[in-house]
Amino acid sequence: MAEEPLLRLEGVTKRFGATLALDDVRFDLRAGEVHALMGENGAGKSTLMKILAGNIDRDAGRIVMDGREIEIRSPRDARSHGIAIIHQELNTVPFMTVAENLALGNEPRTALGLLDRRRMMADAREKLARIHADIDPARPLGSLSVGLQQMVEIARAASEEARVLVLDEPTAALSRSEALELYRIISQMRAAGVGLVYISHRMEEVWQLADRVTVFRDGTYVGTGRMGAITPTVVVRMMVGRAMGDLYDHAPRAPGDVMLEVRGLCDDRVGPVDLAVRAGEVVAMAGLIGSGRTEVGRLIFGADPRSGGTVRIAGRDSAPADPFGAIADGIGMVPEDRKDQGLFLEHSVEDNIAISSLDRFVTAGVVRRGEARSAVTRQMERLRLRLSALALPVRALSGGNQQKAALARWLLRDSRVLILDEPTRGVDIGAKREIYELIDELARAGKAILVISSDLPEAIGISDRLLVMRAGRIVHELVSASATEEDVMVHATGAGAGTPHSDGATA
Amino acid sequence: MTHTPDHPAPRAPEAPARQPFDFAKWWDRVGILLVLVALLLLMSAIAPNFNRVDNLLNIARAISVNAILAAGLTFVILTGGIDLSVGSTIAVSGVVAVIAAIAGWPAPIAILAGVAVGAACGLANGVLIAYLALAPFIVTLGTMTFLRGLGYTITAGQPIVSSDLNFRDVGNGYLSGVPVPVLIMIAVYVVAWFVLERTRYGRHVYAVGGNPQAARLAGVRVGRILTSVYVIAGACAGLAGVIFAARVISAQPTAGTGYELDAIAAVVLGGTSLAGGRGRIVGTLIGSVILGVLSTGLILLNVPFFTQLLIKGVVIILAVAIDGLKQRPLPLFLKRRQAAAGAERP
């Protein structure tokens, strides 16, 4: 206990109904450090941060700032103590300009009581300049990328002289260059003496940014360690409560005949693309955001019109005009954005899983419901989805379980070719492991699997071969067993031996 | 009041597994039915002769046209669309059926002609909406006006009266003491319920309304589903138009004016979300009955017409307000109680 930390939370307990969401946890934060908070979904990270932000009340526990106990019962209390939170869902008004958003609730007024637009703009410019963000304050906020919108939120927090800044999965929706910009601002705020709490699932990022890491599991405090004195393996073990082995570990696979064969596939954004995936093979497509990987997946699946090329499934031509035709040919796709494109959030898990296989369970258009339900439950058991979720809306599931439901749809359909676009985005590490095991199991059962992933260690670790895309074309192919992240980045950026971090994809 | 920190905490579930009381679910299941029962009790207590069988059958016949219209509209609204043209379709299909009957076509053919014209109007709406990707509100606002004009044009603005109309029993007849329109209405709802709840097509309608993008990627042919729901709405409007014409034994170019709004009100009152993907056909039937009972009861009570409109308006707004309340995870009064319970602990 060398120095009194800036902020200390002790014995915090929170109960939701019968569930103990937080059980006597602690957390402390020093001025001028980045303290990562890690744990699986449901570990209690967000609950603790909501308590700190005054969004929910705690049942027990103390909050100590600068050695004095403080009371936080509302967001207003939190703000008055200099605590600011950048949530996953941004609290901004998209139709208003950046300047208006920055002034929200505290608009400058002229002597007549009218809105002082000139000063508002000047204030906004100054606030943005503090964090060196190059954003035009006159633009409507909604016209900015998510990354820039986040910068505006941070600029607001900085302008309020926040001493504690909580970032809840801030890079989940950011491009690489936006993430780098965010890292720069975080370093700058740390240097200015702000204490930052950083919630993230991304191990690499945490190791790059944080000074210390604290791990929660199942609502309890597991431990805290200095970055230099702790390894990712140890943190993973702390998070899941057991040794994970190598996350991507799988026995060697023996791919069979070519199942999916693509030749000259193109539209106005990508191509021509040639690729082949064998039965029992996992092929990963790597590349920068915007390099055209998702587009290729959608073209194969018939989701967008192709302007040329052929797709063959098990030697037979597949030229679907729409996904309906592709599904009939034996292709299944889990799209990148499961909430907008993959799932029916308000509909039951059962309906979500059954929707693409109803033709197997109908007589003259009428669904044989008992049969459909038992087929759905078999897939849920296989994926370790609890059966009580059958009638729940998918919205109520965690990210990992939502993704399992999206996968279950194609397991039920028994598709021969699977296109999985970012299959583990926003998924906790336990569910990730299960999804990797499932991909391996499917490949062993003879499916051809094309995985699109921005998580490089994942793309390399779970696949047999890697296709690297740049500016709409496949520029390189690697054998995964011997590939390194550097190899992939060099080809993805087209930089040769140059700068592996620059965002080179301008199609 | 001591904690037991030694036991392993249960893993926080992704959803609050057991909420103290799920208002939304409860209301979905019985809420609107309770409103109907309360209304019926109130009416039988205060309105003279309300409870008599012949009065109840009269009410049932009076609501059948709107209820059939609303059944078709439920399909459209479940996909997140809207159809304003169904009121005008009533006039056009009624006119066509009456003209066919006068031309000497047998009653079943004349009836079918009316329904087919309605379905054709729906097909036009559906193709414009599904394949030209035009906004349903605007398209059907246009066809509403066009079809009303068509009805006036065919009839030259005058009712066509045919005192020996061959299908008049469709509006005025009885079968075992039950008015024919009521039997048709029941048949329409049985079929609609079966289609929406038990068939693949029904699941696809819900899927398109729940998330059109996801539906397409799941292999639902969204264009066909969208087109078909407008055809269904049009066919139902055509059937309603035939019943209306039979009831008044004439073709009226003004028939069905404003009916689309009553039908929409019935659907929304029945708990179907205007955003699509959520709702039940049974709710629509109950919604239609509520509106019908309310109108008839107010007439029996000698409430002036102007006041009737005021009351109907309030009922519709109340229904929508309750729908809005449903969207929240917990009703406000429960939330407050929970927060207070939390604050009491040390």
UniProtKB/TrEMBL annotation, chain A:
Organism, scientific name: Methylobrevis albus
Family: Belongs to the ABC transporter superfamily.
PROSITE patterns recorded: ABC_TRANSPORTER_1, ABC_TRANSPORTER_2
Keywords: ATP-binding, Cell membrane, Membrane, Nucleotide-binding, Repeat, Sugar transport, Translocase, Transport
Record's protein name: Sugar ABC transporter ATP-binding protein
Gene3D superfamilies the UniProt entry points to: P-loop containing nucleotide triphosphate hydrolases
InterPro entries from the UniProt entry: AAA+_ATPase, ABC_carbohydrate_import_ATPase, ABC_transporter-like_ATP-bd, ABC_transporter-like_CS, P-loop_NTPase
Pfam family, one: ABC_tran
Automatic annotation (TrEMBL), chain B:
Cross-referenced Pfam families: BPD_transp_2
Subcellular localization: Cell membrane
Domain of life: Bacteria
Coiled coil stretches, renumbered: none
Keyword Transmembrane appears in the UniProt entry: yes
Keyword field contains Isomerase: no
CDD domains named in the record: TM_PBP1_transp_AraH_like
GO cellular component: plasma membrane
GO MF terms held by the record: transmembrane transporter activity
Major site of localization recorded for this protein: membrane
InterPro entries per the UniProt record, alphabetical: ABC_transp_permease
Keywords, alphabetical: Cell membrane, Membrane, Transmembrane, Transmembrane helix
Membrane topology: Multi-pass membrane protein
Regions crossing the membrane: 30-50, 62-82, 94-121, 128-154, 174-196, 225-246, 282-303
Name of protein: ABC transporter permease
Species for this entry: Methylobrevis albus
